[in-house]
Amino acid sequence: MTAPHGFSVSRYAPERGTLAKLAARDSVVRRLDWPILLSALALSGIGALLVWSATRGRTELNNGDPYYFLFRHLLNTGIGVALMIGTIWLGHRTLRGAVPVLYGLSIVLILAVLTPLGATINGAHAWIVVGGGFSLQPSEFVKITIILVMAMLLAAKVDAGDQLHPDHRTVAKALTLAALPMGIVMLMPDLGSVMVMAVIVLGVLLASGASNRWVLGLIGAGVLGAVLVTTLGMLDEYQINRFAAFANPDLDPSGVGYNTNQARIAIGSGGLLGSGLFKGSQTTGQFVPEQQTDFVFTVAGEELGFVGAGLILVLLGVVLWRACRIARGTTELYGTVVAAGIIAWFSFQAFENIGMTLGIMPVAGLPLPFVSYGGSSMFAVWVAIGLLQSIRVQRPMTA
Q1: What integer best gives the mean pLDDT of the chain?
Q2: CA dist 52 → 65, 101, 353 (Å)
Q3: What is the 3-state secondary structure of 187-246?
Q4: Of 71, 51, 55, nearest to 63 (Cα)?
Q5: DSSP character for 8?
Q6: Stated pTM of the model
Q7: Would you tell me which of 110, 170, 173, 264 could form a disulfide with 166, CB atoms 3.0–4.6 Å apart?
């Protein structure tokens, strides 16, 4: 059979197939949530400048190369964006089938931290040093795993049309699977990550439509667990000192209260417009410890002032707002629960990080999403953005 103008069908069909592929790719690009993507990129870009300012004079950290942390932060961001693209390409529904494998891998990695492979950094035995100056913090990826495994279980029967809400047996299974990695992370001990995971579990339960009795029970169990952890002496001394400094900011200002006192001085000295990038006296004087990671917000407060620090809050707000839109726009419970878990994760971690620099939250050693220096954290948050984008891209056109 011959097509018009002498072209055979076999020659013409591949051209149509190529056009169809190009149209599909164009559709994916158009359906991306660009506000959330651009906001995340802006946060990572601002973070690069803040990290550079905080480390360019720290010769004991950068080995004499003032651009060392800047280049690595940008590299981490690039790898994170590549992971986001890969996550979108695979799709959250494809990853749904791989959740058991991902869960098992996460358990292996966090157990490896408790072996001689693990390393202690800043008081937390939560890292695996892989050589070449690179280290891995498996607990960052456990946050994603908990979201995916709970969403898979809680949404299975609901999305299949067998139930309106997850039953008690399903919720119990989901909580058990979430409790296992949380318990291992607590042994490190990495209390900050456990706090984030607990909030993630709470957010997932609320979004899944599970009985309120489970939510109230989880809150009660959290309070009881905090009491037991404290009374049984499961916390390290440095963690106890952090809570003591939070309860009494004037306690040992040259010791346990030093970090928070210097952080507030740095932020307070910035005023409305700040002292200017690379011109902050607290930052250049290296008065604030861990300023490229946990206390990176102090650099923004001092050098960019209220306006610059406020811009970071606005960009984080855009990310959370668009994530909420994505959660509401999907027609499947699985996508809603995954998005809700990410929202709970980002919102609490950002609040805790910024709050501890302002003295309204205890120091917990949590990075500011997209802004703080750190490969594991950067990779994890960009994978989360990939999950959000996949949920948006794969939803029905009429949604």
Answers
A1: 85
A2: 11, 38, 19
A3: CCCCHHHHHHHHHHHHHHHHHHCCCHHHHHHHHHHHHHHHHHHHHCCCCCHHHHHHHHHH
A4: 55
A5: B
A6: 0.87
A7: 170
